[in-house]
Give the backbone structure.
Amino acid sequence: MQLFSIFGDPVSHSRSPLMHNCVFKNLKYRACYTRTHLLDGDKLRETFFSLGLSGANVTVPHKEAAYDACDEIRGFANKVGVVNTIVNENGKLIGYNTDADGFMYSIEEFGDVKNILILGAGGTAKALSARFLQDNIKVDVINRSEGRLSYFKELGCECHTWESFKAKKYDLVVNTTSAGLKDEELPAPKEIIDSTLNNTNFVADAIYGKLTPFLKMAKEKNITFKDGADMLLGQGVLANELFVNGELNKEDIKTYMQKSFEL
Ligand code: NDP
């Protein structure tokens, strides 16, 4: 029996155990997926091994620490330095990033998006901005503090703190901050969110399972919006494929993972 886990702080809200266990149970794959509340990202590697895990997902705020914890990084995670999926390959930790492709899957219904504003400059923002630029989408980033913006400047994004920001016209505004996750905060001062929402066609939040104050404002303005549930599904299917290493069919994984959202 293989054991998988998600690491995060907070982690009690995570739907990942339900999603992956629904796949394992229905497809009779001998594995179980649990959650681990990890306060210190530097302890990720030793905790992973002490639990005897075959693989893991990593959520806020440890995705950058997860990159450092791995022996080898594969694919898109190399580009962004952010890992959300770890696979134990014969005692070596292999790091991947499935968030960005999961998000691209989730915004397909918005059609041709050319111009995106990202709120926040953490691990998720890094992954999404690099993925958007790969598709020649113009990316602006706004964050409450300056420190994390240098990565995005180097990548070619237009960057602002709250002080220097003036809203332009966007196809999509995405909240990647954790504001609203365990509190009722907006990702930026109300005037900024207000002017931003008045200038966008679509809105998305990486947070799932609740109507954040940010999404509430979008709803009040009748803007088409979505929370992070489809992103969660997209990244989860890709992570599960890596966990089972080709032993299960991708469409079956998606079917049962989707079913877990009804539970
Ligand atoms: P990080 O900790 O790496 O980054 C958090 C970002 O949020 C930083 O830019 C930080 O700003 C900003 N921030 C935190 N609190 C506030 C606040 N009160 N007001 C304004 N800005 C704030 O987090 P991640 O990128 O890993 O995750 C971000 C969110 O995305 C989480 O809520 C997570 O649950 C969600 N997520 C959802 C996924 C899904 O599948 N749906 C997948 C991945 C993430 P500063 O730099 O100033 O500290």
About this structure: The two ends are 24 Å apart (CA to CA). The longest helix spans residues 229-244. The chain has a mean pLDDT of 96.
